[in-house]
Amino acid sequence: MLLENKNAVVYGGGGSVGGAVASAFAREGATVFLAGRTAETLDAVASEIASAGGSAEVAGVDTLDEEAVDRHADAVAEKAGTIDVSFNAVGHGDVHGAPLIDMPYEDFARPVTTALKSQFVTTRAAARHMVRQGSGVIMAITATTARQNLPEVGGTGVSFDAIESQCRQWACELGPHGVRVAWLQTTGILEAISDTLDFFPAYGTGRAMTREELITWLRGKTMLDRLTSLADVGNVAAFVASDQAATMTACRVDLSCGAVPG
Q: Residue 173 is inside which H or E element, if any?
């Protein structure tokens, strides 16, 4: 197993992405510590992991609360002995569907400030333990919105750009201490596209789209005519977190199906 005897913290572990990553980590042998704000979803993921034979613990943590994040990381390190992997899958409160000229500043800035603080606070908490132990992997997730020019996405692209830039800075400072930092860059994730909305923003196409039209449009931007799945995210996250990816740091791990070449 790729992550046998490893301890992994997954922030936003009750969400679709966080749950997929946590389940993949557990499947590969890691003890998983799920952190987030919603007890019901965290418990559901923990139950799924346990039913599959894995090990997961749950804690209520607001990643914008510095003291709470530090206390949780300290408690994990004290109980488990190490923090080997930290993955941030926390949502940012994005607002789509309006041009910037019509958008309140708060709606634009919210995902940017949330992403910056959440990534910084969780990375710092894990890094303090990883530096002492001389090893560890810190991971984040972004999307092709960071590289493509798309209207009506508010602050989403800026927030992803900010995460990637921050990860590069963490990587250069933590690398000499044996700590790697990387981020997964996905397409829109198929299973995470709501099936309860009648229409989605136009994103520059000229008219609002149904779910099926949105999926077709997103697939058309890729070379493989497919979108990143939750299974893809979990599988690649487990590999990048493992010792088999020991040379990978300060890098974008491309899951964009060719939507962002090079």
A: helix 156-174
Structure confidence by residue, pLDDT tens digits, 94-123 = 999 999 999 999 999 999 999 999 999 999
* pLDDT over threshold 90, residue 168: yes
R_g of the chain, CA atoms, integer Å: 18
CA distance 151 to 42: 34
CATH number, domain 7-195+227-255: 3.40.50.720
What pLDDT score does 262 carry? 74
Strands 7-11 and 31-36: parallel
Helix, strand or coil, per DSSP, at residue 113 = helix
User: Domain extents for the chain?
Assistant: 7-195+227-255
Rounded to whole angstroms, the Cα distance separating 201 from 131 reads 44
Pairwise CA distance, residues 83 & 72, whole Å: 11
Q: What are the angstrom distances between the C-alpha of 211 and each of 60, 142, 150, 200, 215?
A: 33, 21, 18, 7, 6
